[in-house]
Amino acid sequence: MVCDRKYKKDRSRLSQSTGVSGNYFLYLRDDGKVGIGTSNFTCQDPNVRLAVNGYIKAKEVIVEISNWCDNRLYPDFKRMNWKEKENYILQNHHLPEMESEKEIKEKGLYTQHVLKGIVANLEDHTMEIIELYKMVEQLKKENEALRRKLEEIKK
Fold it and tell me: What local confidence, expressed as pLDDT, does residue 24 receive?
């Protein structure tokens, strides 16, 4: 049986006007799990070591990621074409490599996976925009050539 230690707020440091009593700032378990702002660590995921009931403010959060998605920027990477992407979105109602709303509501939002999905889609879209600009430039050249031919025919 896990013996939990609950550390109550140090009321001697609080103003008497706060009216706070019986709340817990920190909840430490013997298995190393920590809860902040909660009197109970309720998360069932064995990988979760810290539960916070409230907002977290930080200047920076470092998320370790083993695989990143820069391979999408290499010329030999096979991206979905626009029709495949459209079909995927119509079928799944979310972008490729992103969790659905239902999955996020059920399991929560996993920062590493979401960051990878956002960057993967951003890189795909960036490469597609570059390709579109190349096509526009080519069409401009063809249009100008056709305009010149039309002018010659009119003469």
Answer: 61
Structure-block tokens of residue 91: 């079928």
Over residues 80-120, the pLDDT tens digits come to 999 999 999 999 999 999 999 999 999 889 888 899 999 99
Domain boundaries, given as residue ranges, for the chain: 1-57, 59-155
Number of C-beta neighbours around residue 124 at 10 A = 20
Question: Using only C-alpha atoms, what is the Rg of the chain?
Answer: 28
**Cβ 32 vs Cβ 43: under 8 Å:** no
pTM of the model: 0.68
Distances (CA, A) of 56 to 15, 36, 41, 65: 24, 10, 17, 21
- DSSP secondary structure of the chain: ----EEEE--GGGS-GGG---S-EEEEE-TTS-EEES-SS-----TT--EEESS----S------S---GGGGSTT--PPPHHHHHHHHHHHSS-TTS--HHHHHHH---HHHHHHHHHHHHHHHHHHHHHHHHHHHHHHHHHHHHHHHHHHHH-
**pLDDT value at 141 more than 70:** yes
